[in-house]
Amino acid sequence: MGRRGRRHSTGFGYIGFGNDQKTFNQKTSTPFSVYKEKLDLEAHLHYKMEFLHKDLTKAEKEKIKEKIRKQERQLFIRTAIISLVVFAGVAYTAYYLINQIISR
């Protein structure tokens, strides 16, 4: 009259947030460490200092943050323009090929 099997499954198991598929498909945002590295680099290049040596004033921090935001906007705009050009090329090629097939 012993146990017939294991009480707990040895399968997938508990992962902390449940086994919902939506948990695995979430897109993570940009980690703070990436922005911190950019902020540190900007401070080092423009103010010739490291964060550990001197505290930045609020105005200096805002200036650096604004420059990072401007760079991110420029990258986004550049990416959007390149994407539109590539999409237009693909769309035109598809349109041309479809017209060639239909006309025969």
UniProtKB/TrEMBL annotation:
Keywords: Membrane, Transmembrane, Transmembrane helix. The chain crosses the membrane at residues 75-98. This is Uncharacterized protein. It comes from the Bacteria.
